[in-house]
Amino acid sequence: MSTGPGIFLRSWKGIALLSLLGLAVNAFLLGPSIQITINGTTDFMAIYSGTHLAFTGKMYDLAANFRVQREAAGWENPNRLFLRPPFDALLMWPLGQLPFLQAAYLWVFLLIGLTLAFCLIWPENRKHAAVVCCWSLPLYYSVADGQDVAVLLLAIALALRLRRAGRPFTGGMVISLCAIKFHLFLLAPLLFIRRRNWRFLSGILTGGAILTALSFLAGGANWPARYLALLRNPITNPWAQSMPNMHGLASLLPWSSAGEIVGTILVAALTWLTIRNSGFEYGLAAVLAGGILTAPHTYLSDCAMTIPALLIAAPGSRDLQRFVSLFALSPLACIWVIAGPAWITTLALLAFLGVMPLGARTTLFSAVPRRLRS
Predict the structure, then answer these.
(1) CA-to-CA distance for 9 and 128, rounded, in angstroms?
(2) Could you say which DSSP state residue 316 is in?
(3) Helix (H) or strand (E) holding 363
């Protein structure tokens, strides 16, 4: 880009100015959310509960989760239940050994550090990554709410860098950590079926096997059944109309189940159309965008997963695609998840995915060796 905002992207001073402006806009839109960070009434309580219930066999027991909440913070919240696979509680166990508020504050600083690490490790333009992160309303909210999206972002950036360095197996093992929010990657098999990245996939399967073993260690032999039972409990999936996905959009329709099925098929078709005519990285961008729309459980924080998608899809794209991409992931489009109606954000994300086939034959990573582009 040679005009407009591109002028500011040429120097670190311009990057700092744009980044601070983005943070200021997000702070203005979500300023009151800092109160939940100060009070510690964030989603970190879910992680904290998991660390205290590991090895007890009650990780997915409602009464046990409420007991930990009362003992640790003096309150109960059904929206702060531990809903991660058991291995996450094991990995986060050190934080659970601290008093709750101390652990919650430390977690926020760790999330900020993980976000900075994502920008530094991102395998292409780090300046663009910094600006996009600062302008991302979902990422701002995810940090304020103690969500662990930054962990996934860093795993994706590191995996892409390792793959670019000719170490796809190790990259696959790293990205397997995204199983923390496995429901956002339901369309990933389409990418592997088409691209046949066997070494990368073998790394994912190996990492997944290790994480599964850790899950049985922390959660017990019957944790999958108990986990599934909790996920099927309506208490874990409230406010469907506030979800920026097909489930939320379909909840507004008379025939919601049929509408969700049709919408999911549409998203999968658009994702496949992009994957079929593009390389691995561009296909991954479509998987990330489509994953938000098809997941049965997504809220504002989860929309931060579109950051890598934007960084991959927008540069070098056509004017229409670039405009739709920037709008769809801007605060203007994302604020509706909180302010309502969330279907505006859903349609914006759907538009972003819909224009991706326009640039499917281009790739952001021009420096990637040809053998790694497929």
Answers:
(1) 7
(2) T
(3) none
- Contact partners, residue 272, CB within 8 Å, separation at least 6: 190, 194
| pLDDT tens by residue, 113-169 | 999 999 999 998 899 899 999 999 999 999 999 999 999 999 999 999 999 999 999
Which 3 state secondary structure label does DSSP give 44? helix
Per-domain residue ranges for the chain? 4-31+107-373
Q: Which residues contact 84 (CB under 8 A, 6 or more apart)?
A: 46, 47, 50, 180, 181
Encode pLDDT of 355-365 as tens digits: 998 876 554 44
In this predicted model, what pLDDT tens digit does every residue of 73-96 receive, in sequence order?
999 999 999 999 999 999 999 999
* DSSP string covering 339-360: HS-THHHHHHHHHHHHHGGGGT
Q: Which two tokens stand for residue 289?
A: 């965008």
- Whole-structure pTM value: 0.91
Helices (H), 295-342: 306-313, 319-328, 331-334, 336-339
